[in-house]
Design brief:
By secondary structure, the chain is of the alpha/beta class. The protein contains five helices and six strands, in the order E-H-E-H-E-H-E-E-E-H-H.
């Protein structure tokens, strides 16, 4: 059986990545199916550096082909913040809502022209510590004035992709996956995953 480990403990990312890999003939394994080991320290300065570090770390510990991602939001008028600190933007142990509230507060008096942003997703594929492929996907858009929508997770309720009037959290998952940073990155790395067994 062809199988791949998703190097994340984030249940939302796991659900989304599993959906994106559906129909590929590859069984997706979560970290919970392996003996517990320490998490990789995500101290890279870029999304790619963090994705590489996670994929290498997990692939060594699980002795399996591993796909890891690091993704986040970059707001141009905030000099690229929250960037690689997207998950903990509002501090240690913060919730998605805490991060969104902080972001909206920082942009409160900014006009639409100063709310441009992009989502970035870097994905790294490693096998037992050896690199197989690395890709990056982006989705440009802007930050809404308030949270809208119930779908998705993270910054989805405040991000409006270019060419749309709805936030990621208001779009159906199938539509979001067509244009999202994570969808683009996975489609770019999918051929490397499928070629691995050839």
């Amino acid at each position: 059986m062809k199988s791949i480990v998703l190097g994340t403990n984030n249940a939302d990312k796991l659900r989304e990545l599993t959906k994106l890999l559906k129909g590929s003939g590859v069984k997706v394994l979560s970290l919970s199916e392996f003996t517990k080991f320490p998490e990789a320290v995500e101290d890279g300065k870029t999304f790619i550096a963090n994705a590489r570090k996670k994929a290498r770390w997990v692939s060594v510990h699980t002795k399996s082909l591993t796909l890891a991602d690091d993704s986040g939001l970059m707001v141009f008028s905030l000099k690229g913040k929250p960037g690689v600190y997207s998950a903990r933007f509002a501090g240690a142990g913060c919730s998605y809502e805490d991060n969104n509230r902080k972001l909206l507060a920082l942009l409160k008096k900014r006009p639409a022209s100063k709310r441009a942003a992009k989502f970035v997703c870097a994905m790294a594929l490693y096998d037992q510590g050896r690199p197989v492929a690395v890709v990056q996907g982006e989705c440009r858009g802007r930050i809404a004035q308030a949270e809208r929508g119930q779908n998705g997770f993270g910054y989805d309720p405040v991000f409006i992709p270019t060419g749309h009037t709805k936030t990621f959290a208001e779009l159906p998952a199938s539509q979001k996956n067509q244009i999202s940073h994570r969808g683009k990155a996975l489609r770019a790395i999918r051929s490397s995953i499928l070629k691995f067994w050839k």
